[in-house]
Design a protein that fits this description.
Helices cover about 40% and strands about 15% of the residues. By secondary structure, it is of the alpha/beta class. A 7-stranded parallel beta sheet has the order 3-2-1-4-5-8-9, sandwiched between helices. A 6-stranded parallel beta sheet has the order 12-11-10-13-14-15, sandwiched between helices. Strands 6-7 form a two-stranded antiparallel sheet. Helix 9 links the parallel strand 8 and strand 9.
Length: about 475
């Protein structure tokens, strides 16, 4: 049964009702809820906005304590495989998203009050534009990655199948608005099979049947690409980003909290902010490889050994690999007192902490935006899909990072000696190359700050978006 309309919205009408539906992957959910929060906070004063955020029942528990006068949560049944299956068989999970979510979502639409004015859906839900047409509800397609990556996917869609396994160093320089790419840096999937990539290509094609397109990015990150895409498509395109929880930064940690011990690799009960407060400025390497894809156990052990050998201080969010990493560090005296391993942290607040001086990342777009917002250089280790493209953007275009993974491919092991060498160089604040990299990272941070400032590109794009969709209210 649909939840009631918030009391604050019952007093006036009409209500503009956006129904938001993310892909069920955690990073997609994070990007969509951040977008909804931004829209809710920036809506015009005379706009009586209601956003219904739709999740599967198992995901809904994440938001039990979420309070908002603008955003409410609804669920559809758990039609997706359990978490254990998702992490081992991505294709089964992906196929379920494409085939089992549409029917219960449409049933929910029949129950919602007031009726949906607009549907905002992750682009992967390729069935959504046709459902919107069938229900006479306009659809906003949300592409939660960079505009550059979207343009790259369009290119691949037009030239598919494009074999990237051969001639990897061949230059591709005819993607509109995009700087030259090596063929091996084009998107790949190291999980599942080629049918998943075919589905992604179909999803890209389905965007043309939507009425609006939102990129979860800052306009200044991809201005040439966005301008070219706006001439290519007949519907409006908006850049609304960064789609990160930057509005939560004022709720910073309490530095007066205490921990029981000050040595070794701490457990998950540790107050990691207190630990960070004790470290010198720019001395800590923050490490995270995302919430879904992961590297092999052997590679993780090489990471741990190389990191211990480097002597660099670190905070590592390992999620599924916590036990493996703690075992790897257990007998290594060099690791004592140098790092922290946790299964979760408030990533953006950690990245903005003054003791953090670098970000070792898989280069998912959410993480790239957060690292750029924090003004940090990147040590990149892309795993799949858009991550190679994002790594190339960081290292070659922005020049704010180093690529640890010189050879693209799941089977290329990076050894501990190389890891130790690069990590030490990356965190060396006295190296001229590092100084220049950090200077450019701070310039990128300034771009982010200007984008979210009053009359910045974020505010301008949101105002244009609300102006364009306002005619939907009768």
């Amino acid at each position: 049964m649909a939840m009631e309309i918030p009391v604050s919205l019952k007093l006036s009408s009409p209500i503009f009702h956006i129904v938001a539906m993310p892909h069920a992957g955690q990073s997609h959910i994070n990007a969509m809820i951040n977008l909804c929060n931004i829209l809710a906070s920036k809506k015009p004063h005379n706009n009586n906005l209601l956003i219904t955020f739709v999740l599967t029942e198992d995901r809904l528990s994440q938001f039990n304590n979420f309070i908002s006068n603008t955003i409410r949560f609804e669920s559809i049944p758990d039609v997706l495989p359990p978490e254990s299956v998702r992490s081992t068989n991505f294709k089964v999970f992906f196929d379920a998203v494409l085939t089992k979510m549409e029917a219960p979502f449409e049933q929910l639409l029949d129950q919602l009050q007031p009726p949906a004015t607009l549907i905002m859906a992750d682009f992967v839900l390729k069935w959504m534009p046709d459902l919107g047409t069938r229900r006479n509800i306009p659809v906003v397609s949300f592409f939660s990655m960079s505009a550059t990556f979207f343009s790259v996917l369009l290119y691949q869609n037009e030239h598919y199948p494009l074999d990237i396994s051969e001639n990897g160093d061949e230059i591709v320089d005819n993607i509109p608005g995009v700087s030259s790419f090596r063929r091996k840096d084009l998107p790949t999937l190291t999980v599942g099979d080629s049918s998943i990539f075919n589905e992604i290509m179909d999803a890209i094609s389905s965007i043309s049947r939507a009425q609006y397109l939102i990129f979860g990015t800052i306009y200044e990150f991809d201005p040439r690409v966005v301008d070219i895409l706006r001439t290519r498509f007949s519907f409006p395109i908006y850049t609304i980003g960064p789609v990160i929880p930057y509005m939560n930064l004022q709720d910073h940690h309490n530095s007066s909290s205490s921990i029981a011990t000050t040595s070794a690799i701490y457990d998950d009960e540790t107050d990691y902010f207190t630990w960070l407060d004790r470290q010198p400025i720019d001395s800590v390497l923050y490490i995270s490889f995302g919430s879904f894809l992961s590297v092999s156990g052997v590679q993780m052990q090489e990471f741990a050994a190389g990191l211990a050998q480097s002597g660099v201080k670190f905070l590592w969010v390992a999620r599924k690999e916590v036990a493996l990493l703690k075992e790897s560090f257990h007998d290594n005296d060099k690791a004592l007192d140098s790092g922290l391993i946790v299964s979760w942290c408030d990533q953006l607040k950690v990245l903005c902490h003054p003791s953090v001086g670098g970000f070792w990342s898989h280069c998912g777009w959410n993480s790239v935006q957060e690292g750029a917002f924090a003004g940090l250089p990147f040590l990149t280790f892309p795993i799949a899909f858009d991550q190679h493209c994002n790594s190339k953007l960081i290292v070659e275009d922005w020049k704010t990072g180093l690529n640890l993974k010189k050879n693209v491919g799941a089977d290329n092991l990076v050894g501990k000696e190389e890891i130790a060498k690069i990590v030490k160089e990356f965190m060396d604040l006295e190296r001229d190359e590092g100084k220049q990299m950090r200077k450019r990272a701070k310039e990128l941070q300034k771009i982010c700050q200007l984008a979210i400032a009053k009359d910045g590109s974020l505010e301008i794009n949101i105002k244009t978006f609300f102006d364009d969709i306002s005619y939907q209210v009768i």
